[in-house]
Design a protein that fits this description.
This protein is α+β, with helices and mostly antiparallel strands. The protein is built from 13 helices and 22 strands. The protein has a domain at 339-563: Roll (Dipeptide-binding Protein, domain 3), CATH 3.10.105. The two termini are 35 Å apart. Residues 107-501 form the Solute-binding protein family domain.
């Protein structure tokens, strides 16, 4: 999945969700997992880890793909799977519980208040005596670095921004960031931004003291956009390139756990308790997170006692059946919709510059067949998703795709014929020497292979040839982020702030850093920009709906379904798979089940 944090995350890539939507669904779960969705010490709009009984021992967790970087804010690391690990390692202003409720991380922060409305000013207060795991202060400098690295304003000697950030959404509206003192950070906005609580989340806040010591920069807060270009370049190069993989000396923790080992071959990362953590002292003494790309193998590993928690964002019917059948072993199975959607992106730089071909291809795809065959065992009421901005049940959700997708082979063939395409002797349409033949590319994922297999059959009936291309590194090897595909099959995942999808769909040269398909439509840009700047909630909603409709009318992308998570666990009192942060969002309060 891909992530959005200020940006959207690739859920081997995903996006969207609305604040406090409470969109949890027990459909398919073996017990009332909804009761596990709230933190044990959560009160009102504040989140703190509960101080639970000591838990000596190791918990082993299986997830779908591996950890690859400590800095999850660059295009080549911006992944849900990094975020699932870093949720327990790094701390920011925001915590989301299992209901996607937006909470202040009160273990670290006192407040995040709008201190001036016009122009907008937000002031953050950090609690005193908060430290990184190496004993250095967690303070205003760390927040300043988060802004500097993602604002898009920094310029090196060549006039270019050396911070390669996955997205600048929200941060670019902060015209000035100031450390009033070590614990007070003030952000002054050039325009209103109602989704400000989505900024400065855990992965965004990196240790400024490490960057300073490794680059020789005395004070990162002096590198405003008018600072020394040579120092800005040094800072940007370090931020972009050095926080990949695992290097213990430059990767301290600000959360309840710290990284202590990483086996790239086994795709396993080890977490141990952070001795400087100021919050609750509970949780397992050690956690090992392993990548298990085969969801069926993950379920078998749980059955065999090789792992204690199976946490998959890639639903699989056979794996779900296996995990549901382990109740006699004390295994609890859960399933719930995520703030993630599976979709197809059509590349405008290649043959899908032709709108008629885009239209015909989408018309040929019956998404209900996909959800019925591949998701019903995981979530019995799964159905196609008909928006890329809103989820079913959210205010603003409108069905924009039922009238466009699944119209059948005859409708798709007519669209191509009317546009001057002609069917060849091989049964495939062609025009101007170009056959309607292309690849759908995805990462190594059995369900995605099955999805493409279904689409191949549907498209063939319409005279369109589709080929399956599996690339294990598609989402993290630079191919998806450089637009190296005909059609990309993946997911977007985001925090519950609609502004975060802006970077996916506006023109690439206008702030669409995550717009890898080269879609560019002024109607989309205008609607998103108006929505992000809106000060009235109804105007904001209307503009997001306009953006949603414009994307659909361009036949640019086809949402398939809102992706349900599936997880199972044993030996722990309760585990809930949070839509954006995975199962580790409250690992520091897990207790051993007697």
């Amino acid at each position: 999945m891909s992530l959005v944090a200020g940006a959207s995350l690739l859920l081997s890539a995903c996006s969207g969700g609305d604040s406090g939507s409470g969109n949890t669904d027990q459909n398919g779960s073996s017990t009332d997992v909804k009761a596990m969705a709230v933190g044990k010490a959560e009160t009102g709009d504040l989140f703190k880890l509960a101080d639970t009984k000591p838990y000596d021992g190791t918990v082993t967790i299986g997830i779908d793909d591996g950890y690859s970087g400590y800095n999850n804010q660059t295009p080549d690391t911006n992944s849900s799977y990094n975020n699932y690990v870093l949720a327990a390692v790094l701390s920011g202003t925001l915590k989301l519980d299992g209901n996607n409720k937006v909470l202040l991380n009160n273990d670290i922060f006192e407040s995040w208040d709008i201190t001036q409305k016009d122009p907008q000013q937000v002031t953050y207060k950090i609690k005193p005596n908060i430290k990184w795991s190496d004993g250095q202060p967690y303070d205003c400098k760390d927040m300043y670095l988060a802004w500097l690295s993602q604002s898009g304003f920094a310029k090196g000697p060549d006039g270019k921004n050396p911070f390669n950030s996955a997205s600048t959404t929200g941060y670019s509206l902060i015209k000035q960031a100031t450390c009033k003192d070590a614990l007070t950070f003030v952000t002054d906005y050039s325009e209103p931004y109602l989704d400000y609580k989505g900024l400065f989340n855990a992965p965004a806040i990196m240790p400024a003291h490490i960057l300073e010591s490794k680059t020789g920069i005395a004070d990162i807060t002096k590198l405003a956009p008018t600072g020394d270009p040579a120092q800005i370049k040094a800072a940007g190069d370090f931020w972009t390139n050095e926080w990949k993989g695992f290097k213990a000396d430059i990767m301290p923790a600000s959360g309840p756990y710290k990284l202590t080992a990483f086996d790239a071959n086994q795709k396993a990362v080890t977490l141990e308790k952070n001795p400087m953590w100021a919050g609750g002292k509970g949780g397992p003494s050690k956690i090992v997170v392993k990548a298990m790309e085969d969801t069926k193998a993950m379920a078998t590993a749980l059955q065999n006692g090789e792992i204690d928690v199976a946490a998959s964002t890639q639903p699989d019917a056979t794996a779900a059946q296996t995990m549901k059948g382990l109740a006699a072993q004390g295994v609890v199975y859960g399933s719930a919709p995520q703030l993630t959607y599976e979709h197809l992106d059509l590349n405008f730089k290649r043959m899908f510059a032709d709108k008629d071909l885009r239209k015909a291809f989408i018309e040929s795809i019956n998404r209900k067949e996909i959800t019925d065959k591949l998701l019903k065992e995981v979530q019995a009421d799964a159905e196609p998703l008909n928006s890329v901005v809103f989820f079913q049940g959210e205010e603003g959700y409108t069905d924009l795709y039922s009238s466009k997708a699944g119209l059948g082979a005859d409708a798709a063939a007519k669209t191509l014929t009317d546009a001057g395409w002609a069917k060849g002797a091989d049964g495939i349409f062609a025009k101007g020497g170009q056959r309607a033949s292309f690849k759908i590319t995805h990462n190594q994922n059995a369900r995605r292979s099955q999805t493409v297999e279904i689409i191949i059959s549907q498209a063939k009936a319409a005279g369109i040839e589709v080929k399956d291309e599996t690339d294990a590194n598609f989402l993290k090897g630079g191919r998806v982020s450089t637009g190296d595909y005909d059609v990309a099959l993946f997911g977007w995942s985001a925090q519950p702030f609609k502004a975060e999808s802006r970077s996916i769909y506006i023109c690439p040269d206008k702030g669409g850093e995550q717009n890898y398909q080269a879609l560019c439509d002024p109607k989309i840009d205008d609607a998103y920009n108006a929505a992000v700047k809106a000060t009235d909630e109804q105007v904001k909603l209307q503009k997001y709906q306009e953006a949603d409709k414009a994307i659909a009318d361009d036949y640019a992308t086809l949402p398939l379904f809102q992706t349900p998570s599936m997880w199972a666990f044993k030996g722990i009192d309760r585990v809930y798979m949070q839509s954006y942060d995975g199962v580790l969002w409250n690992a520091g309060e897990w207790e051993q089940k007697k």
